[in-house]
Amino acid sequence: MEKLKNYIHGEWIEGTGNGIPLYNAVTGEQVAVSDTEGLNFEQALDYGRTVGYKNLSSMTFYDRGEMLKKVALYLLERKKKYYELSYKTGATHADSWVDIEGGFGTFFTYSGLAKRMLPNTPFWVDGETQKISANGTFLGTHILTPSEGVSVQINAYNFPVWGMLEKLSTSLLAGVPSIVKPSPYGSYLTNAVFQDMIESGVLPEGALQLVCGEPGNILDYVQDGDSVLFTGSATTGRKLKSLPSVSGNAVRFNMEADSLNCSILGLDAKPGTPEFDLFIKEVRNEMTTKAGQKCTAIRRIIVPENLIGDVQNALSKALDQTKIGNPLSRDTRMGSLVGKQQYDEVLRKINILKTETELVYDGKHELVDADYENGAFMSPKLFLNDSPFTKNISHDVEAFGPVSTLMPYKDAEEAAALAKRGKGSLVGSIISHDDQFVAETSWKMASQHGRIFVLNRDNAKESTGHGSPLPTLMHGGPGRAGGGEEMGGLSGLHFFLQKTAIQGSPDILTAITKVYQQGAEKKFADKHPFQKYFEQVEVGDSLETAGRTVTDADIVNFSNVSWDHFYAHTDATSLTGTIFDKTVAHGYFILSAAAGLFVSGKKGPVIANYGLENCSFFKPVYAGDTITVYLTAKEKINRGVKGRNIPSGVVKWLVEVVNQRDEVVCVATILTLVAKHSPFIDLNLKNVQKTLNGLTESTQSKWGKMSPQQMIEHLEHTVLLSLGEPEADKCFTAEEHLEKYQDSLYNHRKMPKDFLAPFLNADGSLPDLKHKNLEVAKQSFLDNLKKFSIYYKENPQAEHMNFVFGKLNKEMWELMHKKHFTHHFEQFGLI
């Protein structure tokens, strides 16, 4: 039987022992063996701290975000084989989707967050700068840097893929290398996904290692700077947290334990209401999804005492209709537990629950294409605790399977009290259309819950469900749930980052943070900052504008244009007792006038105003005052761009408006969208002609079989196609891919060198030459390029077919020609 290999210090290594046999949860057949005996864990941790840390921490947050996206895309292309393995863990297709593609989705989410909100630097400035001296020469702020260590991630058996990827999404983005330790059960699925992550070639050396089996004494070697993330039982988690190596070395420890989550049916949600039906559906789903093996599953069903019978009957009928069996069968809605060992453990907990509560539903389901003897199948089981304030076993014992307990309550106070008797839960849900009941219950139970999910008819269609943790929201909970926090958007990165206070002068803080600090030296130049591409803008680039004297007419006109007739701007007789001496200019007029002074009217790389932050007005501006503006590049934010948008980044500009007495009257931060410099040749005729001067008959191509003249005639033919001379008769790209191909014209990625042109002759040869020689071909090409420029000035709405990209308009043809010319000019070493 195949042994699962471990990935340690950059090598795939088999354990040297007998290992743990891993079985198909459906058929009982052995699938693989996990074995970690003989591994050098001390060496593994040291390798992560040195090689892994150096490579990951030197990358920027933006680049790490791009790395996550590339890995997720690579895995997504190979998802079919993961599903085939997932079925062997007892998971249905729906269960597997949550685990597999839910894991990929977490990578995509964090990639998007990084590219929208994190800096293109290896550190992250956290929060606003604090002015800690009277004159502003001494400032303070905070930066976040990757914790200098390795993260050991110990995962549970219920989500072999998502469990790994949700932890890695934050640790990798934070720049911290990780050692993944999945549960042996289902680790053959984790192993397959991990192998592809390594084979993708996207991750830097040392970023990830895999221990596929028992953890041995790996935690004996953790030290200051390292971290441990644990998902599993609270008992095991507490033991690990108290290890001397962990507690004695200030090792960061995050625990996410199972919990006795509850769902509360509102007093208003009687049979016949949408909420009653939603409640039954939600509880059934949470009992049967992953066969109840979810740390977020509903274990306690809290119901108005007068509706206990209705809920029991409706839920029993819903469970009766849930077909159990082989996950490969289309009829199956619930698979098996992950193995016989887990089956025995769940059965033991069921027997404990029976000592104090009544088993009111134990559907003996007939299995679909499976049998109870070989597989780890268990039918759903529903208990009734008729006195939940005196019978405590339902609040203390968790059977980690398709098992839940009904219990009654009288009012919102009792519902919240029962919810909190779980002593700390990952999630609690309330299904009700009564806003007052939901509000009162939720804030009373919040202290014992990591997440509260409210469901009713208004959000049901778009709801993600009680049991679905989301990357942008915190996953974790207090007390029994472990007291940990995972994901939660960007806050999930903080666990892996060291926060450091930085103090110094404005110039020093600007140099360290790469964010301009007020009072630091400004860099003035003749070139207007708005005429610089994103890559050319430097933090500190500044502009001092001419002055503008504000007039009474300005104030009156702005009042009329904006409809802002606030008395301070229009009625000099109403100013007694105010802070104003006379009618004052509108704050938004000052901001608008400032923009009029600092913008560049000439077309340039600045695409649009992207936003406004932290605008403050400090002193009034009256008619007769003269304002001057200082515009300074404060911060640059790289930006991922999709679809048909111009590749660009966001530049934050500090706007300081002063009056004739050099008093600051307004400070604001404006955001502009600034185009990135295109790597492709401009279609300017003189520029193209100058480039072609270097092309001769003897010029050798760097790839492909084209001669210089064939290349020029090929480009000329494409230019003629863009004029409809002749009109291409078809597009060779499939309709479903056409939009993606057209979108690619807008990005800055170069055309592939190995693309097989669809217009080639059947034998792959190029068309016969039509011009006498290269010089004649060059001139004809340039003549038609000039014709192209004139044609689209006269016919701006024209569209013509391209063999690869379909029907293109003026803008798309220009983008296509720029990429295409650059591709072939680079082929012959001209640029």
Automatic annotation (TrEMBL):
<protein>
    <submittedName>
        <fullName>Phenylacetic acid degradation bifunctional protein PaaZ</fullName>
    </submittedName>
</protein>
<feature type="domain" description="Aldehyde dehydrogenase">
    <location>
        <begin position="12"/>
        <end position="499"/>
    </location>
</feature>
<dbReference type="InterPro" id="IPR029069">
    <property type="entry name" value="HotDog_dom_sf"/>
</dbReference>
<feature type="domain" description="MaoC-like">
    <location>
        <begin position="538"/>
        <end position="639"/>
    </location>
</feature>
<dbReference type="Pfam" id="PF00171">
    <property type="entry name" value="Aldedh"/>
</dbReference>
<dbReference type="InterPro" id="IPR011966">
    <property type="entry name" value="PaaN-DH"/>
</dbReference>
<dbReference type="InterPro" id="IPR016162">
    <property type="entry name" value="Ald_DH_N"/>
</dbReference>
<dbReference type="InterPro" id="IPR016163">
    <property type="entry name" value="Ald_DH_C"/>
</dbReference>
<dbReference type="InterPro" id="IPR016161">
    <property type="entry name" value="Ald_DH/histidinol_DH"/>
</dbReference>
<dbReference type="InterPro" id="IPR002539">
    <property type="entry name" value="MaoC-like_dom"/>
</dbReference>
<feature type="region of interest" description="Disordered">
    <location>
        <begin position="460"/>
        <end position="484"/>
    </location>
</feature>
<dbReference type="InterPro" id="IPR015590">
    <property type="entry name" value="Aldehyde_DH_dom"/>
</dbReference>
<dbReference type="Pfam" id="PF01575">
    <property type="entry name" value="MaoC_dehydratas"/>
</dbReference>
<keyword id="KW-0560">Oxidoreductase</keyword>
